Amino acid sequence: MALELQILGSNSAAFAHNRHHTSQLLRVQDKYFMIDCGEGTQLQVKRYKIKLSRINHILISHLHGDHYYGLMGLVSTLHLYGRTADLHIYGPPGLADIITLQLKYSATRLSYDIKFHEWVPETSSVIYEDDKLTITTIPLNHRIHCSGYLFKEKPKKRGINKLVVDKKLAPNQANALRNGEDIYNEDGTLLYKNSLATLPPKKPYSYAYCSDTKLIPQLVDVIRDVDLIYHEATFMDDMKDRAENTYHTTARQAAQLASEAHVGQLLLGHFSTRYRDLNPLLSEARSVFRESYLAEEGKRFVVNH
Amino acid sequence: MALELQILGSNSAAFAHNRHHTSQLLRVQDKYFMIDCGEGTQLQVKRYKIKLSRINHILISHLHGDHYYGLMGLVSTLHLYGRTADLHIYGPPGLADIITLQLKYSATRLSYDIKFHEWVPETSSVIYEDDKLTITTIPLNHRIHCSGYLFKEKPKKRGINKLVVDKKLAPNQANALRNGEDIYNEDGTLLYKNSLATLPPKKPYSYAYCSDTKLIPQLVDVIRDVDLIYHEATFMDDMKDRAENTYHTTARQAAQLASEAHVGQLLLGHFSTRYRDLNPLLSEARSVFRESYLAEEGKRFVVNH
What we know:
The structure is a homodimer.
Chain A lengths: L2 E7 L13 E6 L2 E7 L3 H7 L7 E5 L11 H10 L6 E5 L3 H11 L8 E5 L7 E4 L3 E7 L7 E7 L5 E2 L10 H8 L4 E2 L5 E3 L1 H4 E2 L6 E5 L8 H4 L5 E5 L7 H6 L5 H10 L4 E5 L9 H8 L5 E3 L5 E4 L2
Parallel strand pairs in A: 3-4, 4-5, 5-6, 14-15, 15-16, 16-17
Antiparallel strand pairs in A: 1-2, 1-18, 2-3, 7-8, 8-9, 9-14, 10-13, 11-12
Helix pairs in contact in A: 8-9
Protein name (chains A, B): Ribonuclease Z
Keywords (chains A, B): Endonuclease, Hydrolase, Metal-binding, Nuclease, tRNA processing, Zinc
EC number (chains A, B): 3.1.26.11
């Protein structure tokens, strides 16, 4: 099953040019992850007809408003809808404080439980793991504690070559094959040799979310070969100094990083309000890395190799 | 100069039917007051081309999200715009805590100062006064501390009757006339007798904002004769019990209150998401009080008698 990313917003700072603040929805296999949640995200969720009940995990990169001011609204709406499933919220220290304080003053006892997972700043650690996927924090370099997130599917099992395997297998036999084992008949003779009866496992999907940050050249090792990376590109390269001073990145810098790391596709986002037309940022990035795209709201990016 | 109210949003609870959460902008003479500030209010401000720099006072009724989740976004945007003038924020205890905590975690030192004015719950008190206007809290009956706001112009000076006063007056003479005094010539003889040379003062304008609350019959004395009242009307009267249980009011109840208090106009708002079509609420109110209107977003109500 593919990895699919939908952009709900990608503008920085103030609202402008009908562009909303940062939020994304990532689907990996059957799970949905919301990444960042700027003000008005729940309006975007409505606009794009996303089922809120599907979202059990929300990851916040940092505590600048354009990345999380929509979170309390979403938390409240889920309560009004009568949600009962746990909601897992990942983010920097302080996020639980902020949410808890507002619930206290509104005297709200939510219809569901929030499970907070605050990460340790400046440290890369696995904050989510199930049998198919891990999410690891990517410490970024911003004015306040900020972390990206690396989504990586776990290595997949081998596929069964149906051109060779023409018999119906018991579940344990099929599993054994997918795990790389040979299969024997009851009398001990070889039924299927694994190397003949199976296909190599599919490549696991991966996605890296990197916003907000100044350029971190060492990131190339962290994101090497990922299928998809979202990297902030607040400015164009003629404003490199301003990017540096405000802890942001330029489109060219993001493209250079993507190129060096041999990623599949680069999505540019966190656009400065100074750019009404975003095509110059795209051109700048594409002159360095051809597989660059604008992470404009409403767009979907699918990885399916 | 007229009193003018613009509705930015008036839906309750969750977003629905393209209706936004509660926020209003009131102009009294040359001053602008924002009342409540639900999520996305700054988007509505943009939509209706309101100059943010004009707003120096924001009043919050209570700490349910649909009335204040847009405030942090507005505070941040004013900072990004480089505001320097003080911003006065009025509201229940806790509001300063909530804002201060979020500014702390975002490491933001605002370009301007916020002056917090937290009122004392369950107590009516003057929270704003200048030479022309007072704002008094109206304790309401909701699940958490909640207050309405009564805006009252101070008694106005007498007008000069230009049919009688045909001479150019010195400023102190004109002021004395407007204050009700007679005017004398230098030789001590009467120049203008006040009762002949002036007109009665114009009636001061008044506006009462009452949301959220269950019906408070005693409110009739507080809002008597106001020009304009916004009163929540979350439900229709067939849901009176539900209104009572959830500390809300019906359209009929609001209209009865307005009728008994002899107000000028009643604006209904805080509509439940169950009503896609609001006309039945309007009809219900008008059957009791003819001067009832729907406080739909984008609408302006002007008092100019």
